[in-house]
Design a protein that fits this description.
Elements lengths: L1 H20 L8 H18 L3 H20 L2 H9 L6 H15 L4 H10 L2 H22 L4 H4 L3 H8 L2 H9 L4 H4 L8 H20 L3 H17 L21
Length: 247
């Protein structure tokens, strides 16, 4: 499941960071350590040694330095806060190449993780990893047009309701669907995922943030195509916002 893959990645990152400063962190919970230990066992079982897991920890330790060498993170964040039509071209021309170059920092980590996984977990991980460049291209397209299609005053007012919207949409997914492997989802569970996606699209339309669902679909559609849901649901959903573009 994709959520578990993300958790594993974060867990190893936390473990590596903790190893660097030699002190425990508040995030180093018992659950996190269980995930790390599970990954370590998987690496050992599939590779026959602890070398791959040790390289993973070392890789996560080195990754921040690698990112720092390719990406001006402070400038990226501070510049985004001040972004407007007067500086968007310069901003995206500066930072989009940096973001794409920084992907090389995680390529070795994903190659190592692939050695420790197989089956569905590996297939889902590959889908998500391969979609990152596409997501970046969408974000950078036309110098960030996806952000500038937002009606900012209405969107800002709507942000305060995001938590309520998230709870409402998440309520459309049952516990059994959340814990099920994608390859084993039945028709009813696939409909739940479709309704969740539709709910999110509708809420984003209310917030005049229609472009955000395009970004979410970069991941949603390939994951659904790789799942059993390809047999049950339309994987090219029509957005309620398609005829209501924000100019």
């Amino acid at each position: 499941m994709s959520a578990r893959l993300i958790l594993v990645t974060l867990a190893v990152a936390i473990y590596a960071a903790s190893a660097v400063d030699g002190s425990p962190t508040s995030s180093s919970s018992e659950e996190t350590m269980e995930v790390i230990e599970s990954l370590e066992r998987q690496c050992l079982q599939r590779t026959g040694s602890s070398e791959t897991f040790e390289k993973l920890v070392a890789g996560f330790t080195f990754a921040p330095m690698c990112f720092a060498g390719h990406l001006d993170l402070d400038g990226l964040i501070s510049g985004f806060d001040e972004l407007d039509d007067s500086n968007r071209v310069q901003y995206f021309d500066t930072y989009c190449p940096q973001l794409n170059q920084s992907l090389q920092c995680v390529n070795p980590l994903f190659d190592l993780l692939r050695k420790c996984w197989d089956g569905e977990e590996l297939a889902i991980w590959d889908i998500m990893f391969n979609m990152v460049p596409e997501a970046l291209n969408l974000i950078c397209k036309d110098h960030g047009e996806i952000f500038f299609r937002l009606d900012r005053p209405e969107y800002s007012m709507c942000v305060t309701r995001f938590e309520d919207y998230a709870v409402e949409c998440a309520g459309k997914i049952s516990n059994s669907t959340e814990t099920m492997h994608l390859s084993k989802l039945n028709e009813e569970q696939c409909y739940e995922l479709r309704e969740f996606r539709s709910c999110v699209a509708q809420k984003l339309d209310i917030c005049k943030a229609s472009g955000i669902i395009e970004l979410a679909d970069v991941f949603y559609k390939p994951l659904m195509k790789a799942s059993s849901c390809a047999k049950y649901i339309d994987l090219e959903p029509n957005n309620p916002v398609d005829t209501n573009e924000i100019n």
